[in-house]
Model the fold of this input.
Amino acid sequence: MIFTATPDGFLDLGDGRRARCALGRSGVVPAAEKREGDGFSPAGAWPIRRVLYRPDKGPPPETALPVEAIAPDDGWCDAPGDPAYNRPVKLPYPASAERMWRDDEVYDLVVVLGHNDDPVVDAMGSCIFAHLRRPGYLPTEGCVALAPEDMAAFLKAARPGDVLEIRL
Done:
C-alpha cells in the first residue's frame, strides 16, 4: 500500500480516510534537492522501515510492522561527515545527534522512513520520520506528523513493504 502525504497537509490512510498532517517548515522539495537542516520534507516514496516507541508511555502499538522500544540514551546522528550519519546511535555521541527520548511527546511513536538510508548520501537529509504532531500541527523539520489517533490508524493499516509517499 502507498500512504500519500500531500503538500496541503493531509495523509491518505488507505481506507478512504484522509488525516490532517504537518510537513516540513520550508515545504516539500524534490528529494535530490533535500539538504541537512533545510526544513524541507523530501518528495518521494519512502519505504516504511520500522516503528519505534517509548515503553514508559504505553504498550507497543498495534501494527504488523517491526516494532522496537527506544531507551533514554537513543539518538539519531544528523552530523554530515560522520560515519554514523542518518543512523541510530547511543548518547552521548561525539557528533551531533537528535535525541529520540524527548520531553515532549513528538517521538513517543516514530515510523522510520527509508529516506537517504540505502545508501546514505552525506548531507542529503537525516531523521525523516513519521511521528506525532505538535499542538496546532506546527511544521516539522522535514518529517510527516500525525495526531495520535491518526498515527494509530496508520500503524494498524500499514504492512511490511508499504511506503509513505510525500508529494510535491
User: Anything to note?
Assistant: DSSP finds one helix and 13 strands in the chain. The first strand starts at residue 2 and ends at 6. The mean pLDDT is 97.
